[in-house]
Design the sequence.
């Protein structure tokens, strides 16, 4: 796997699991260094970024863009839906388990990006058909069913911030790249 | 990906056995590759945890809300996720079903809007929140509490406002936490029912109602200012059964409620004139010689004085004029009530939320007593009871730290405080009337209230004189709110702490109407970082003692299951016929005794009898006899009523989107005549306003509401700043100071006018 | 007559509490706006007090269901053992025929799945020996499960006022109508 892509994916995971402005900052630095380009993040107000991030993805008020798959996939927006459990089972098949199972929904974007990292790494390094089949399934039968809607909701939300835009852009770019790659894979 | 691969994956996903086989390649290929996952963990080779296949695990929960019905719940869990709920089938009261609110619990549990983490607001009301760890939250709070102690030499600058948001017994650990910090400021009293509690205490020596399930035996039922079709749906079946057996049901209410539509007869009555109406009936019963002389002679004191009063100052015509109910109905029903035994009156809490509420309850009690219906199966002046609440209150009773200083003077006690007064120093908590929270917080001095802790309550949605409360909040140096949703009080908090739902903690529950007991098991893990109130107390205590040893005596290690079991004692076991609390895992249990109050004629009054004439009541500044007391003089054109809706319990449930399917928006209900004279049509936006504040809302026209009143239901809608408390001032009800810590509040003694928006 | 399960809608006992409607949501978690059981307040022409009498209605599991008859892919079938009309959502193509043809509004469109769906009479619960969740949860037994082949329908109304009269479909539902209280209004107003 592309090491650069790997680091981008890891930074995206860190972004969406961030608990503070500092963690957002660290994740964005990695993202901005993508392809060797250095973007000037110096002017960013990381406190404002944190406020915006929380309004969009964390709370305490109603989330503007909930980062959970089941919110978009389920017939009705809720947490811990059937799709959450499907994702849990998929992790199970890859030998992975969330340490916060039951507390943090398994289909939180940050957890899913972590799973993506794991599956892609397995597909690359292990001599077996199954990991790439699993990754392919995860990408096409799961991520594809909700990430575009999430991106749309996040972009159209009332609250915005350039740091969030940076992450959303990278997320979309990575996702599109994966989709194109996978189509080629079948051939 | 080839089709067979996709199907194979999906099939494997559904069954844990095939899932494991699919994974064979992991062990074959060698798992030792460094995994870039920083969050997900590799599983141990052996199966971890419960694997759920097909069936559900069931757990017992109990609805901990402030409601007559206090339902037992059976929760169906699969894969660690609560899927759906049913009502407890073995309880004859719950009888397999909940209500529209109870059946929306799964939605409350898994709402994406639930508060997930401790958070701190940068600038109260700004909407700019940062996530903090529990550690950091406890540190910030502890530092503030220590600062308060240093500034004032006591913890009186820390105040608690808490009431009935969660009646699980272990949640009294919040009060316990406060005691364990020192002597603090407590909001005491209740907006609910205190005037009536005192009234029943003056008359009978306790608030103690019959088992509601015995209502099937009544021959005559008066539902007075109570709306069980909305607020106690499970009791309706007993009323229906009584009707089936030939009982007559009369509903008395200013509004034609759902209950009124199900009664045999409905009396539209003038708000707060219920005392006059009851006394008018009493006068007629006296005149007709229908008093139960034997019962009165053997079981009461003061009846002759009461009879004198009736003869001198009460007539049926006067009662008809005061209440608006025709004299011929008053006389006929009075005779029916007196001659159809057992007869019973269910006195509603709405009925006593008036400046003369306590006095009205005493008059209605007298009606039941003089006809010999007290102490009879199927009879009684029904209001409520606390007979099944004899727990240990282990969570509530904590020691104050050594050397704690407090308030010099007596402290008032709330009606759910069963603790005994300890011997020792004369310090106590400083107590304020919870019904005047805004005023008390603003005026508190020496020391002022510096920090406010809010739990099981939503003052900015529920409390009175809202504009004043907003001012009061501004005065606070720190506001900590413990809650599940981002409501109007959380909006004005500095720190919000996520609390567990009923599914996420162990506790035990009883009710104040029926006589059943239910365990509440933890059925799922707390979502995100939610903690129960006692775990929050433990965490605070740990941090307090780290920063200042000895500053908090609350145990630093708690377990909700262990603490639940500590609430049980021999009294509870005997009352419910239990060997152990574990028996409750199989279902709810009903009390074996205490179901028929006053049958032995031994009242809890000073005289030991029913007191038509109560010297104690007089001593407390009221009338010794249940004399008529005037209601509040109108200060605006229309009576304003703000009762409870079936769709919510205060500010809970109505905000859920499941509930929005059935109850999408608030209305002000007004009579078509009232609307016409103001040029208001059905659905028009109107402004309801009075001296206290205003509300903009859509109008719904109906003659269920009389021409001289308007009605709005108290509720918190999700994306709507509607709040009827904008118009309710904090005028006190007459009684409540005796047994409930402070006088009640005259919620329905309010007035307003309406204009087209 | 062969066994035909249906609902007895006792509008006299019904207090319009919406417990049945929410119990159904609690069991099946339908999408917002898709409501299998609705509680309809009776119009003031039928019952003079606004929002004080109701019919709780879902699917009537008709003897001759129009949904089944108009479905182009046979996504509906009627159970022989108890007459319940079951919709197999996997087969549904979302054409909308059933939605348009049912006079009771039972089949509704699920915009996320782009298919129809309706009250199932909780047939999975029935097969497990349980009651439909609406019937179980009603606090006043105003919704009851009846077998039209066996039940004593004396005093029951077949087509209650306001309920679409479709004898050719023969809906498996019976009613009791609500009574009125004696209303004594204030003399001073």
Sequence:
């Amino acid at each position: 796997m592309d090491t650069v892509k790997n680091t981008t994916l890891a930074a995206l995971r860190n972004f969406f699991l961030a608990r503070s402005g500092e963690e957002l900052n660290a994740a964005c630095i990695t993202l901005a260094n993508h392809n060797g380009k250095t973007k000037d993040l110096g002017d960013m107000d990381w406190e404002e970024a944190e406020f915006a991030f929380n309004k969009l993805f964390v709370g305490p008020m109603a989330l503007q863009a909930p980062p959970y798959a089941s919110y978009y996939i389920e017939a009705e927006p809720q947490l811990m839906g059937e799709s959450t459990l499907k994702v849990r089972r998929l992790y199970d098949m890859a030998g992975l388990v969330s340490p916060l199972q039951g507390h943090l929904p398994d289909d939180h974007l940050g957890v899913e990006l972590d799973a993506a990292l794991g599956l892609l790494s397995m597909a690359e390094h292990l001599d077996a058909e199954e990991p790439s089949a699993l990754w392919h399934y995860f990408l096409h039968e799961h991520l594809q069913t909700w990430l575009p809607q999430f991106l749309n909701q996040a972009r159209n939300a009332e609250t915005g911030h350039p740091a969030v835009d940076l992450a959303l852009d990278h997320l979309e770019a990575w996702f599109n790249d994966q989709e194109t790659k996978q189509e080629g894979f079948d051939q | 990906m080839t089709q067979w691969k996709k199907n194979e994956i999906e099939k494997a996903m559904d069954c844990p056995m095939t899932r494991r086989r699919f994974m064979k390649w992991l062990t074959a290929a060698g798992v030792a590759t460094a995994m870039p996952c920083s969050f997900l963990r590799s599983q141990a080779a052996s199966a971890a945890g419960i694997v759920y296949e097909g069936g559900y695990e069931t757990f017992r929960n109990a609805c901990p809300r402030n409601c007559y019905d206090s339902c037992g719940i059976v929760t169906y869990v699969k894969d660690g996720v609560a899927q759906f709920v049913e009502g407890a089938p073995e309880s004859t009261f719950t009888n397999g079903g909940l209500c529209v609110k109870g059946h929306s619990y799964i939605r409350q549990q898994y709402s994406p809007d639930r508060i997930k983490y401790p958070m701190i607001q940068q600038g109260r009301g700004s909407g700019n929140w940062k996530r903090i760890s529990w550690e950091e939250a406890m540190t910030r709070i502890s530092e503030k509490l220590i600062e308060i102690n240093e500034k004032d030499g006591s913890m009186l600058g820390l105040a608690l406002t808490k009431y009935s948001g969660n009646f699980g017994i272990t949640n009294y650990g919040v009060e316990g936490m406060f005691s364990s910090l020192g002597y603090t400021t407590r909001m005491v009293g209740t907006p609910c029912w205190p005037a009536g509690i005192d009234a029943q205490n003056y008359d009978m020596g306790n608030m103690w109602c019959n088992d509601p399930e015995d209502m099937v035996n009544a021959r005559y039922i008066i539902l007075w200012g109570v709306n069980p079709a909305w607020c106690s749906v499970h009791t309706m079946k007993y009323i229906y059964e009584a009707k089936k057996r030939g009982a007559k049901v009369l509903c008395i209410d200013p509004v034609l409620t759902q209950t009124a539509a199900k009664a045999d007869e409905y009396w539209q009555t003038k708000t707060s004139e219920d005392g006059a109406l009851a006394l008018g009936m009493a006068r007629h019963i006296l005149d007709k010689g229908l008093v139960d002389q034997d019962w009165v002679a053997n079981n009461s004191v003061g009846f002759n004085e009461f009879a004198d009063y009736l003869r001198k100052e009460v007539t049926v015509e006067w009662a008809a004029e005061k209440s608006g109910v025709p004299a011929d109905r008053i006389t006929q029903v009075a005779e029916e009530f007196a001659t159809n035994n057992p007869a019973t009156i269910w006195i509603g809490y709405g009925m006593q939320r008036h400046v003369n509420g306590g006095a009205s309850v005493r008059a209605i009690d007298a009606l039941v007593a003089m006809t010999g219906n007290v102490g009879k199966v199927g009879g009684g002046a029904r209001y409520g009871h606390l007979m099944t609440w004899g727990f240990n209150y282990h969570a509530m009773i904590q020691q104050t730290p050594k050397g704690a200083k407090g308030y010099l003077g007596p402290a008032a006690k709330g009606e759910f405080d069963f603790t005994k007064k300890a011997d020792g120093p004369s310090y106590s908590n400083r107590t304020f009337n919870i019904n005047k929270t805004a005023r008390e917080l603003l005026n508190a001095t020496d020391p002022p209230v510096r920090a406010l802790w809010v739990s099981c309550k939503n003052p900015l949605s529920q409390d009175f004189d809202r504009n004043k409360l907003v001012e009061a909040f501004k005065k606070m140096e720190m506001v900590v709110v413990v809650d599940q949703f981002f409501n109007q009080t959380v909006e004005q908090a500095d720190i919000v702490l996520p609390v567990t739902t009923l599914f996420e903690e162990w506790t035990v529950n009883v009710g104040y109407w029926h006589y059943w007991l239910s365990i509440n098991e933890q059925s799922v893990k707390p979502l995100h970082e939610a903690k129960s109130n006692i775990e929050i107390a433990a965490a605070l205590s740990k941090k307090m003692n780290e920063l200042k040893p000895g500053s908090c005596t609350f145990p630093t290690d708690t377990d909700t299951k262990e603490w639940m079991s500590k609430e049980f004692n021999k009294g509870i076991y005997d009352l419910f016929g239990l060997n152990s609390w574990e028996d409750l895992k199989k279902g709810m249990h009903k009390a074996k005794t205490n179901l028929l109050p006053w049958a032995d004629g031994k009242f809890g009054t000073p005289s030991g009898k029913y007191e038509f004439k109560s010297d104690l009541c007089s001593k407390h500044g009221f009338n010794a006899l249940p004399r008529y007391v005037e209601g509040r003089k109108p200060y605006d054109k229309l009576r304003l009523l703000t009762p409870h809706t079936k769709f919510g319990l205060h500010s809970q449930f109505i905000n859920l989107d499941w509930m929005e399917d059935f109850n999408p928006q608030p209305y002000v209900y007004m009579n078509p005549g009232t609307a016409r004279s103001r040029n208001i049509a059905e659905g028009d936006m109107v402004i309801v306003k009075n001296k206290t504040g205003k509300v903009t809302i859509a109008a719904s026209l109906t003659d269920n509401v009389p021409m001289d009143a308007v009605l709005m239901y108290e509720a918190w809608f999700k994306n709507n700043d509607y709040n009827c408390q904008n118009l309710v001032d904090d005028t006190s009800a007459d009684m409540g100071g005796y047994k409930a810590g402070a006088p009640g509040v005259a919620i329905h003694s309010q007035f307003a006018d309406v204009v087209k928006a | 007559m062969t066994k035909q399960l249906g609902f007895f809608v006792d509008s006299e006992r019904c207090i319009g509490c919406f417990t049945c409607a929410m119990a159904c949501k609690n069991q099946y978690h339908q999408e917002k706006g898709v409501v299998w059981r609705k509680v309809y307040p009776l119009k003031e022409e039928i019952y003079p007090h606004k929002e004080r009498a109701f019919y709780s209605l879902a699917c009537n599991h008709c003897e001759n269901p129009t949904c089944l008859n108009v479905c182009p892919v046979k996504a509906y079938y009627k159970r022989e053992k108890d007459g319940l009309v079951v919709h197999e959502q996997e087969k549904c193509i979302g054409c909308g025929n059933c939605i348009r043809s049912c006079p009771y509004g039972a089949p509704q469109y699920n915009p996320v799945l782009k298919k129809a769906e309706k009250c199932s009479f909780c047939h999975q619960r029935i097969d497990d020996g349980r009651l439909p969740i609406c019937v179980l949860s009603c606090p006043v037994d105003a919704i009851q499960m009846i077998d039209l082949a066996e039940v004593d329908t004396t005093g029951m109304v077949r087509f209650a006022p306001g309920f679409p009269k479709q004898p050719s479909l023969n809906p498996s539902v019976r009613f009791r109508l609500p009574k009125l209280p004696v209303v004594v209004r204030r003399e001073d107003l």
Notes: DSSP finds 25 helices and 30 strands in chain B. The radius of gyration of chain B is 28 Å. Chain B touches chain C through 60 residues (CB under 8 Å).
